[in-house]
Amino acid sequence: MRLRNVAFVGPHHAGKTTLVEAILALTGAIGRRGSIGDGTTVTDHEPEDVAHLQSTTVGFAHTTANGVDISIVDAPGFVDFAEEMKQALAGVDAAVVVVEADPGRIVQTQAIVDYLESTRMPHIFVINKMDRPGADFSETLAALQGAYGRHVVAEQLPLGSAETFDGFVDLAQMKAFRFAGDHAAGTLSESEEPVPAAVEGDAKRMHSELLEAMADFDDHLMEELLEGIEPPLDEIERDLCEECSHDQVVPVLVSAGLSGAGVAALARAIEKWFPSPAQAPHLDAEGRPLDPDPNAPVVARIIKTSIHPQSGKLSIARVLSGTIKSDATLTNISRRDEKVRLGGLYRLQGKKQEAIAEAGPGMIVALARLESVATGDTLTSNGHKVLLPRVPVGEPVFAVAIKPKDRIDEAKISQMLARIVDEDPALRLERADVTHEWLLLGSGEQHVAIAVERLARKYKVEVETAAPTIPYQETITGGTEIHSRYKHQTGGHGQFGDVWLRFEPRERGTGVTFEEKIVGGVVPRQFIPAVEKGVREALSRGASGYPVTDLHVTLFDGQYHDVDSSEQSFKTAAGMGVREALPKCNPVVLEPIAHVRVIVPTTYTSTVIQQLTGKRGQILGMNPVDDRPGLDVVEAYVPAVELSRYITELRTATQGLGTYGWRHERYDPVPGNRVAPKAAV
Question: What does the pLDDT read at residue 563?
Fold first, then answer.
């Protein structure tokens, strides 16, 4: 059977899931269309998808149309879930980019299309929601061409728009098609008719533009156009299939997913224009193409992991070569050639698992109960040493501190969180170095919030979340000398320790140093380490409750008692001395300063500079990104406390196009016009 593997991608709320549902209904894969509002669609089956009325994870489905087996990946469109989309795209050969008929939203496709082009993945655009009030095909097409060039070219011209949208002109065939049937059921048919006179001029012009775009990659077609010869239809269609499948031209179609308008033509485009697995071989980590031969050794890539508390773990894989049997034992090349045995083999129709006996090259299937296998791993048949390149996972840009609401869950929270992270490689679980809080990090505020919801639903572990505690420090700006004596008399041996300590500030970032300048043994040498220990322990909590740093402490005098002195008594005396000295040394609270690097379209550069300045940022510079025209990089020093929700604010201000990274730079005193925070006791 012929195969196609296609992902539906695009901005959130563009209608991807609705289009997938319409294709499944039209081709008979499902008996009745579901809806987003009712939570009944095939690919948005997770409770979080239903609750938020949007995809929060990739969904899988399959259907058959005109003898072609089509595997569909429905990718979330919200920017927080972009890393999940990238992992899933490693399993397909082409993409349908769904956009609304609104030129103002085309900018939101930038990151998606940039990624598709970086991987040379064939794709088409579908201008969806043509039946909505205000739908504007011409301006949306112009916005697409302005953003991505003249090889983005219309293959369909809509007939009407909004409530009058009732068909399209196929610009390759120069034929019109009208929609007919039950709009409510969403399975409209198409009836052929001549191109209406009212749009004939536009259709001819756009037909010429389509041919000219294709002629850039076909010398024979170019000669025909220069000689004024109209190419035969079979040549046009052959060129369109060839050039779309090689990512040379990007055809633009029209649709209205809710009514099913244009869905039949979209299904035909997937069958005809997109490459089969045999035409688009994937490459191994050495850049060598894999042989899509069912009799070759098995090579498969894990593109998604899903864990259900009752039914167990599913590893969704793209088979690249060979044939996997349902009871096969495979080798995980990514995990030191670990042997793994399948607990079942399935095709997925949303949450429905359909058992199959075997899967050959090009198929997307679910492998059951491979506990040690992770997203991105390469599985092969025994002895076959082929490693596939991993899809890089972006660095987290948002974090929350988490702790269980019930103390009874403390023992299992890390284990349950590890399972959530196993399902989504873009999540990360870390223990903060200074505050020792558990941090859950992800690609955005909603990304992390959804993970917390899944934790509660799947594993019955509810957590409290908060902004991560800022690791403030303290230091001193002046010096002093302190005499500290600890004397305690009991019925037997007493305790006696007497020290003189000098405190001096040091340069920022140099830490704490200790030295002794004892003359004449007034403090015996065996007690000096105890003095240092007492000093350092007392400096772990300064006047404002934060660790004290960047100072030098000198033990220069003292006294001892032959009987009552001990290590503990000198340690206690030293700690008392630190606590007495710090308020006399003009202490200040230090806040961590981050080096922030923001990448943003030039249009928003001034907005970003204003944002960072408003966050007490020190702008270091602004420069164009060398290899990405139209983008600027803005660098600044910004207090870490100002960055807890910055990714959300940045995306809101830039239509989701801005991104940033940061690293710790230094500590600076909290400005005098701000109230220095007190540490929690």
Answer: 86
Determine the Cα–Cα distance for residues 212 and 231; give it in Å rounded to an integer.
Answer: 12
Span 297-317, average pLDDT: 91
Question: Residue 680: pLDDT band by 50, 70, 90 thresholds?
Answer: low
Looking at residue 309, its pLDDT comes to 74
Model pLDDT for residues 476-503, shown as the tens digit of each residue:
999 999 999 999 877 667 899 999 999 9
- Residue identified by tokens 């005396």 is 573
Tell me how far apart the alpha carbons of residues 523 and 549 are, in angstroms, rounded to a whole number: 25
Q: Which residues pair with 123 in a beta bridge?
A: 95
Tens digit of pLDDT for each residue in 539-567?
Answer: 999 989 999 999 999 999 999 998 899 99
Per the CB < 8 A criterion, the answer to whether 402 and 323 are in contact is no
Q: Which residues, other chains included, contact 352 with Cβ-Cβ below 8 Å and sequence gap of 6+?
A: none
pLDDT tens, position by position, 391-408: 999 999 999 999 988 877
Q: Quick check: helix, strand or coil at residue 569? A: helix
| Residues linked to residue 601 through DSSP beta bridges, in sequence order | 631
Which tokens belong to 31? Answer: 């008996």
DSSP 391: P
3-state secondary structure of 247: coil
In the β-sheet with 551-559, what is the strand arrangement from edge to edge?
480-488, 495-505, 551-559, 512-516
Our CA angle for 585, 589, 593, nearest 5°, is 135
Q: Residues, the chain, total?
A: 681
pLDDT over 90 percentage in the chain: 87
Tell me how far apart the alpha carbons of residues 658 and 453 are, in angstroms, rounded to a whole number.
26
Q: Residue 629 has which token pair?
A: 């025209």
CA 515/CA 553 separation, integer angstroms: 7
Phi, psi of 20, rounded to the nearest 5 degrees: -60, -45
User: How far does the chain reach from its first CA to its final CA, in angstroms?
Assistant: 68
Task: Determine contact, residues 8/251, Cβ cutoff 8 Å.
Answer: no
Helix (H, G, I), strand (E, B) or coil at 175: strand
Q: Which contacts qualify for 111-119: CB closer than 8 Å, 24 or more apart?
A: 111/79, 111/82, 111/656, 111/657, 112/9, 112/10, 112/11, 112/82, 112/85, 113/147, 113/148, 114/628, 115/86, 115/89, 116/9, 116/89, 117/247, 119/89
Q: What's the CA gap between 330 and 382, in Å, rounded?
A: 6
What distances in angstroms separate CA 125 from CA 9, 41, 97, 250, 464, one per listed residue? 10, 22, 5, 7, 42
Q: Which residues pair with 498 in a beta bridge?
A: 485, 559
The per-residue pLDDT for range 262-286, each reduced to its tens digit, is 999 999 999 999 999 988 888 999 9
Residue 401: how many other CB atoms lie within 10 Å: 17
Q: How far apart are CA 331 and CA 382, in angstroms?
A: 6
- How many other C-beta atoms can be found within 10 angstroms of the C-beta atom of residue 350? 20
Whole-angstrom distance, CA of residue 10 vs CA of residue 13: 9
CB-CB contact of 80 with 442 (8 Å)? yes
Q: In this structure, is the dihedral angle defined by the CA atoms of residues 369, 372, 376 and 378, taken in order, positive or negative?
A: negative
**Averaged over 20-47, what is the pLDDT?**
94
542's enclosing H/E stretch is none
pTM of the model: 0.90
> Distance (Å, rounded) from C-alpha 619 to C-alpha 612?
8
Label residue 521 exposed, middle or buried (CB < 10 Å: 0-12, 13-18, 19+): exposed
Query: So what's the pLDDT on residue 290?
Result: 92
User: Cβ-count burial of 228 within 10 angstroms (0-12 exposed, 13-18 middle, 19+ buried)?
Assistant: exposed
8 A C-beta contact, residue 169 and residue 156: yes
SS3 223: helix
Q: What is the pLDDT of residue 628?
A: 79
